[in-house]
Amino acid sequence: MFSNYLIGLREGLEASLVVCILIAYLVKTDRRDALKPIWIGIGVALALALGFGCALEFGSQELTFEAQEALGGSLSLLAVGLVTWMVFWMRRTARHLKAELHDKLDAALQMGTGALVATAFLAVGREGLETALFVWASVRAAGDGSPRPLLGAALGIATAVVLGWLFYRGALRINLAKFFTWTGGMLVVVAAGVLAYGFHDLQEARWLPGLKNLAFDISDTVDPSSWYGTLLKGVFNFQPDPTVLQVTVWLLYLVPTLALFLAPVGFASGKGKVKAPDEQGSRPSKAPQA
């Protein structure tokens, strides 16, 4: 549950920051007439992400077991690739996100309503699709059939919405450098577990060999149904009887990726703190209306 909460919080806060930056800029520049296209683009992006998640869940149920495992494994690898790219990209560009969005919004304002819708859709849609794919892969990796993973993701997104609103109202200051470094590092750990489980899916689909070649088996020591087994499974996607390939892939991904991500590059000291999106100019008198 915690890993999915982290996914929802991280991805949801990115989307919330994008939304409040776009809206605050329009309010600050007295372009409230452009708010409706922005909300339309956001709504379409959210609907697409939800539809994508439903298609993954219900569409895969019509497949054979081996086809399900092949699809799950392939999409798990894709999800890990996207999340890895995302955490490195955000760590590098978080300080410049506001300026980049303002530039895109200025260009869209000159082009008209369709461009505004597209700008909001693209800005939020990428986060939504990444979230849907990674949550789906993480839920498959959890494999306990309970609603807890989805509940965790929903709580994370809800927390992100509240933080985004506080950020917009100027009641919250966020040090993006520290936030995206810590959450990004934890997501790398989660992604390592999803990657290992994805390779296990491909082994069960008979795309890869070594399904019976176990690295170790501590099922008698660590009961997967116990509270600590559930905790390890939920946070790290821990499996008491992994194959040699799973352990190898987990180590080859986690160690170098985490080392590169935590290397002291990308953010200058003290420059990652971001205040309310409009604080460099006049603050809006009230929240924008859709």
UniProtKB/TrEMBL annotation:
Please, which domain of life does this record's source organism belong to? Bacteria
Q: Which UniProt keywords apply?
A: Membrane, Transmembrane, Transmembrane helix
InterPro entries per UniProt: FTR1/Fip1/EfeU
Instruction: Using the record for this protein, list the coiled-coil segments as residue ranges, or answer none.
Output: none
| Membrane spanning residue stretches | 38-58, 70-90, 111-129, 149-167, 179-199, 247-267
The places in or outside the cell where this protein is found are: Membrane
Q: According to Swiss-Prot or TrEMBL, what is its membrane topology?
A: Multi-pass membrane protein
Q: What would be one Pfam family of this protein?
A: FTR1
GO MF term set: ferrous iron transmembrane transporter activity
The yes or no answer to whether the keyword Transmembrane is present is yes
Major location (coarse): membrane
Q: Any one cellular component term from GO for this entry? A: high-affinity iron permease complex
Q: Which family does it belong to?
A: Belongs to the oxidase-dependent Fe transporter (OFeT) (TC 9.A.10.1) family.
Name of the protein this chain belongs to? Iron uptake transporter permease EfeU
Supply the source organism for this entry: Streptomyces sp. R28
